[in-house]
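Person: Show me a sequence?

Helper:
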Amino acid sequence: MRILRFDHHGTPDIGIALGDEIVPLSSLPGDPLPVSIRGVIEGGPAVLADIAHRLMAVPASARLPMTDVRTLMPIPDPGKVVCLGLNYAKHAKEGGHEVPDYPSMFLRCTTSLIDPGAPMVVPRCSERLDYEAELMVVIGKRCRYVPESEALDAVFGYTLFNDGSVRDYQRRTAQWTAGKNFDGTGPVGPWIVTADELPPGADGLRIRSLVNGQVMQDANTNTMLFNVARTIAIVSEIMTLEPGDMIATGTPEGVGHARNPPVWLRPGDMVTVEVERVGSLTCPVVADVEAAVPEAV
């Protein structure tokens, strides 16, 4: 099931993507369903089964063409966005790092995150904005100290993430916070694919990035150093994970800064992240002066 937030003529809603159409949850027959994706997540398998059952009875007139809506970031208010760095060996090596035996971690601020299709912003103070294709995990239930053998039970689903990184700021300190949290650099979406639709841990899926149609990264999630289950086990040793939290699982080799000459995102570019069976996430790139502070939806 593909669950998404969308805006239809100025009205935000949630729904289910079916091919190139959307069924708003508010249009499904029967008792009212949760009015937020977080509510759906917290409802767990019972709510998903209820939605799936009701979808069979929805009339064609209740469906909206995907082209008539604007998709929104699936979870507008994640409590935590935990990101892994150097989680693919070839990416670690291309950046001059040793292959880690424990994951590098950093946090993303919500002001750095943007809707699918919204412009990624090259900041005024730097020209070194880089792309990073990533699989994002959406946590489905509260957990702490979860063993690796049970960790996938905590996954609600998966979405896409472009971990746009301002490389010169990333390297100004030993910590990566500055380079990873510029406003307008982290598109998320366009929907959440529930875990039951994918292989366990989203393993064995092709992951790519493209800039202006040219393939820049092309790898497979089965080459992650710390797979989804191991990542959740490690992160939950440190902090309580809650429904709606998100974990970005790192990027493979082929990023712009490691190329000769480097490839930086420029205003006018189009950058796409793809993960097999999850979907694609495409955003234009603009200069800071062109960007407006988005209104909350």
